[in-house]
Each structure stands twice: as structure tokens, then as C-alpha cells.
């Protein structure tokens, strides 16, 4: 049975993530295989032609679920009536830069986009910010959309989550599907904390199945610095894996997490785990009835506490910086 169409806005549609993302959305992987998709592509004027080229290719795929494609350089038009907003468009970092270096350049993009979402998005709009620094960009957009419930603004740490899953699976010689309850805490940055103390493999705590030295000196830095390692190797930041994580994030948000498992997402803090209220920080989250909920009641030992606090301190600094820049 065919369902009601969903309007999906993708910003930065002509960029490398956009190219890896749009075909998967149009093929039915974002929501489900029965929901028609209306695509809205937002680009800067100089890149509209390239987005038109991608739209021609989307047409040439004859995707049964793809109802329409609109391309615009106007944020209000792009977000009018949108149900899912994927905020990808931003300047990616180059070699030697940290994601925080992009705050000023990219912060300016997310204020007008937050305003446009506030002005015209559908009542059920869900926003995922991919463009870096993703958590603080999400905070900026959210701050400019006072009429949209704050919890509809999220930042992507699913790529970090997926990276952590594979690193652990390879270490233990198990399948990624054997891993449950992994968590990325904090910022999508080199300070993020991938937590194995609550993760389970074969029903047992993952941290107890690996050497402490591997966990502290290999696993955590490998996951936290994977973005930089990809930039080094590819000469460009991750694209297909980022698009894949964006698909996973929204699919989970809409369709739910499996029983007995959770995922990681940057969501507005309600003060849980000592993360200041209002910051957009990564937490362990379940998704039920179309809503993310922070998993409550986990015990946090000293090793984890220190690392969560360090990443949250960075988020607090980023928030203070964008406040000073007048972006929130
Ligand atoms: P890219 O440079 O290939 O594409 C970015 C696109 O955004 C360009 O086409 C550009 O014209 C467009 N753009 C710029 N300003 C815009 C605006 N105001 N409105 C609409 N479009 C705009 O970059 P990319 O590799 O696709 O990466 C996009 C962003 O995603 C970067 O910030 C990158 O760092 C980030 N990223 C995040 C994650 C994550 O896990 N959160 C992973 C990978 C990349
Ligand atoms: C990533 O994690 O791959 C992205 O955030 C790109 C980057 O700048 O690291």
C-alpha cells in the first residue's frame, strides 16, 4: 500500500555527500519502501547548475517512489512544507583543520536555515545536521526556530557510531550485528567518547572482552580521529559513509530502534548525565513512535566521566563562541 508522500530537503545537494545521499533517499532507503518522496534541493546560486545535473541523473534512475524534484537557492522555498531536512551544505575541513575551525564560516549558514525552517516547515519536521561542526550548527539552527520543538533538531554522530561498531567487530572477530548498546558521547569531533562499558557483545560487556590498552590507546583515538584519517587518505572528507549514516539516522528516528538496543545521536540535552541543558550532545538514544529518547540510568565510571566531561566542555566552548559571534 502506498503511503502519503514525504518532502525531504537536502542542502548542499551538489556536494559530495549530496551525490551519495540523494539516490538512496529517492530509492526508498530513508523512510521505507512504500513512502513516495518529494525532493527539494537547496544550493548556493553557483552550484544550482550542478544540482540540476544530479536531478537529471535522478530522473534517469526512474525511481518508482520519486514524485518530484525541486531545485532552489532560496532557503524559504526549500524548507516550505518540508518533513525531513538534511542540512548537509557547509564547507568541509581540509587537511590540518579541526572541525571547530569551521564555526564562523559555517555558523552563518545555519541561522537563516533555522529561520526558514521555523517559517515554513511541516509541523512534524525532523532536522538532521550533517555539516560541521554538526552539533553547534544544529544548536544555531535550533536557536532560530523557536516555534519548532527543540527535540526535532539533531546532529549526526551515527557515522562515529558505525565506525566504532566496525572497529570493535574487527577486533573481536564478530559481526557488527553481534554488537549492542554502543554509545558515542559528546561532540562530533576528536573529543568524542566512544563507550564500550555499556556495549554488549554476545550478551557480555564489550570493555571486558578487550585489553584496556587497546580500548584507551587504539579504539578511542581511531574512532575519534577517523574523519581526519579519511581526509589524509582520500584527500577529501568522508562522503559515502557520511551519507550512509544520515540515512541510518533518519531511518532509525522514523522506524525505531530494535528491542534491547540503542543508537547514538546528537540531541538536545535535558540535563541527563550532567550535560548542560540545551546543548546538542551525543547520547545513547532509543527511538520509539518517531521520537528519540535519551537512555536513562546508566552508571558512568571515572574513566568515562572524564572523557564525557572533556567533550561536553568543548561543546560548551563552541556554544560560547557562537554566542559571542552573535549566531545564537
Ligand atoms: P562539499 O564541499 O562537497 O559540498 C558542500 C556543498 O554545500 C557544496 O555543493 C556547496 O555549494 C553547498 N553549500 C555551501 N553553502 C551552502 C548553503 N548556504 N546552502 C546550501 N548549500 C550550500 O562538502 P561535503 O563533503 O558534501 O560535506 C558537507 C559537510 O558535511 C561538511 O561540513 C563536512 O565537514 C560535513 N561532514 C559531516 C559528517 C558528520 O559525521 N557529521 C561527515 C562527513 C562530512
Ligand atoms: C567525518 O567525521 O568524516 C566528517 O566529520 C568529516 C571531517 O571533517 O572529519
Fold topology:
Elements: E1 6-11, H1 16-26, E2 37-42, H2 48-60, E3 66-72, H3 75-79, E4 84-87, H4 103-120, E5 126-129, H5 134-143, E6 153-155, H6 158-172, E7 179-180, E8 183-185, E9 193-195, E10 200-201, E11 204-205, H7 212-224, H8 226-234, H9 240-255, E12 263-268, E13 280-288, E14 291-294, H10 302-324
Parallel strand pairs: 1-2, 1-4, 2-3, 4-5, 5-6
Antiparallel strand pairs: 7-10, 8-9, 10-11, 12-13, 13-14
Helix pairs in contact: 1-9, 4-5, 5-10, 6-7
The protein binds nicotinamide-adenine-dinucleotide (NAD) and (2S)-2-hydroxybutanedioic acid.
The site of nicotinamide-adenine-dinucleotide has 28 residues, from helix 1.
What does this structure look like?
With 328 residues, this protein is of the alpha/beta class. The protein has two domains: 6-155, NAD(P)-binding Rossmann-like Domain (Rossmann fold), CATH 3.40.50.720; 158-318, Lactate dehydrogenase/glycoside hydrolase, family 4, C-terminal (L-2-Hydroxyisocaproate Dehydrogenase, Chain A, domain 2, Alpha-Beta Complex). It is 41% helix and 19% strand. It contains ten helices and 14 strands. It has a six-stranded parallel beta sheet. A three-stranded antiparallel beta sheet has the order 7-10-11, with helices on one face. It has a three-stranded antiparallel beta sheet with strand order 12-13-14. Helix 4 (103-120) links the parallel strand 4 (84-87) and strand 5 (126-129). Helix 1 (16-26) crosses helix 9 (240-255). The structure holds nicotinamide-adenine-dinucleotide and (2S)-2-hydroxybutanedioic acid. Residues 92-93, 99, 132, 159, 227-228, 230, 237-238 line the site of (2S)-2-hydroxybutanedioic acid (LMR). Keywords: NAD, Oxidoreductase, Tricarboxylic acid cycle. This is Malate dehydrogenase. Residues 157-322 form the Lactate/malate dehydrogenase C-terminal domain.
Amino acid at each position: 500500500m502506498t503511503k502519503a508522500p514525504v518532502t525531504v530537503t537536502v542542502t548542499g545537494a551538489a556536494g559530495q555527500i549530496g551525490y551519495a545521499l540523494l539516490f538512496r533517499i529517492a530509492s526508498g532507503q530513508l523512510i521505507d519502501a512504500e513512502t513516495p518522496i518529494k525532493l527539494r534541493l537547496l544550493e548556493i546560486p553557483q552550484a544550482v547548475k550542478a544540482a540540476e545535473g544530479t536531478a537529471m541523473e535522478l530522473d534517469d534512475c526512474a525511481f518508482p517512489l520519486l514524485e518530484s524534484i525541486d531545485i532552489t537557492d532560496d532557503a524559504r522555498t526549500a524548507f516550505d512544507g518540508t518533513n525531513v531536512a538534511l542540512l548537509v551544505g557547509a564547507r568541509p575541513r581540509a587537511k590540518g583543520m579541526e572541525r571547530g575551525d569551521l564555526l564562523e564560516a559555517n555558523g552563518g549558514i545555519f541561522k537563516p536555515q533555522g529561520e526558514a525552517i521555523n517559517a515554513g516547515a511541516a509541523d512534524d519536521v525532523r532536522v538532521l545536521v550533517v555539516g560541521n561542526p554538526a552539533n553547534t550548527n544544529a544548536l544555531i539552527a535550533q536557536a532560530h526556530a523557536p516555534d519548532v520543538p527543540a527535540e526535532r533538531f539533531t546532529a549526526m554522530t551515527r557515522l562515529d557510531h558505525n565506525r566504532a561498531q566496525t572497529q570493535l567487530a574487527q577486533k573481536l572477530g564478530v559481526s557488527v550485528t553481534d554488537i549492542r548498546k554502543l554509545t558515542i558521547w559528546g561532540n562530533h569531533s576528536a573529543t568524542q567518547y566512544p563507550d564500550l562499558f555499556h556495549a554488549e557483545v554476545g550478551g557480555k560487556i564489550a570493555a571486558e572482552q578487550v585489553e584496556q590498552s587497546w580500548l584507551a590507546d587504539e579504539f578511542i583515538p581511531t574512532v575519534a580521529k577517523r574523519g581526519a584519517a579519511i581526509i589524509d587518505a582520500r584527500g577529501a572528507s568522508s562522503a559515502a559513509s557520511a551519507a550512509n549514516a544520515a540515512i541510518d539516522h533518519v531511518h532509525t528516528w522514523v522506524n525505531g530502534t530494535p528491542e534491547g538496543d540503542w543508537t547514538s545521536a546528537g540531541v538536545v540535552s535535558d540535563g541527563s548525565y550532567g550535560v548542560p541543558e540545551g546543548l546538542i550532545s551525543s547520547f545513547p538514544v532509543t527511538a520509539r513512535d518517531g521520537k528519540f529518547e535519551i537512555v536513562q540510568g546508566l552508571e558512568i565510571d571515572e574513566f568515562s566521566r572524564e572523557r564525557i566531561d572533556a567533550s561536553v566542555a568543548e561543546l560548551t566552548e563552541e556554544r560560547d563562541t557562537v554566542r559571542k559571534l552573535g549566531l545564537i
